[in-house]
């Protein structure tokens, strides 16, 4: 049976790939191909060994490349972080836990393949890969979802603390009154994570 969280996310106004075909008997779900790049490829440090490496290793050239790519998409790094925070907040407001939030599971649509309703933002952020997602209204589950993303940022993108903080600011603003409880629980989850790291 195909996972239904993506349907719920779509109905709740979260940007997810369009559903093209469902075969419940065969357990097949056909979704839209997103023309664009994963956020991992749009941030410094995100090109892995199996991906195209940009620049020749000279300090600053890699960052210049990523700045140029973001210009192609018509957004700044700050706007990209805001788009991420807003979509995750919309998802959590609908009580959907992604379960695998990484910058690889977020796509930015290429402006040439998208008609935006906002002239200042010619693209949109799309959350993908809901294979581990589930429904939960628990503050703990939402905080853990955010913690998984924070760890993904720190392991994939060097010096990414300000990026994650910017994303979290947009998330908090979008979520509103639900944020304080999730923010406090996120601090608890971080503390538990640090204790586990020290114990080994």
UniProtKB/TrEMBL annotation:
Catalytic reaction annotation: L-threonyl-[protein] + ATP = O-phospho-L-threonyl-[protein] + ADP + H(+); L-seryl-[protein] + ATP = O-phospho-L-seryl-[protein] + ADP + H(+)
UniProt xrefs under InterPro entries: EcKL, Kinase-like_dom_sf, Prot_kinase_dom, Tyr_kinase_AS
Residues in the signal sequence: none
Source domain of life: Eukaryota
Pfam families named in the record: EcKL
GO CC annotations on file: cytosol; EKC/KEOPS complex; nucleus
Keyword terms of this UniProt record: ATP-binding, Kinase, Nucleotide-binding, Transferase, tRNA processing
GO biological process: tRNA processing; tRNA threonylcarbamoyladenosine metabolic process
One example GO MF annotation: protein serine/threonine kinase activity
Domain Protein kinase: 1-200
PROSITE patterns: PROTEIN_KINASE_DOM, PROTEIN_KINASE_TYR
EC identifiers of the protein: 2.7.11.1
Annotated PANTHER family: EKC_KEOPS COMPLEX SUBUNIT TP53RK, NON-SPECIFIC SERINE/THREONINE PROTEIN KINASE
Similarity comment: family membership: Belongs to the protein kinase superfamily. BUD32 family.
Record-given protein name: non-specific serine/threonine protein kinase
Source species of the chain: Tricholomella constricta
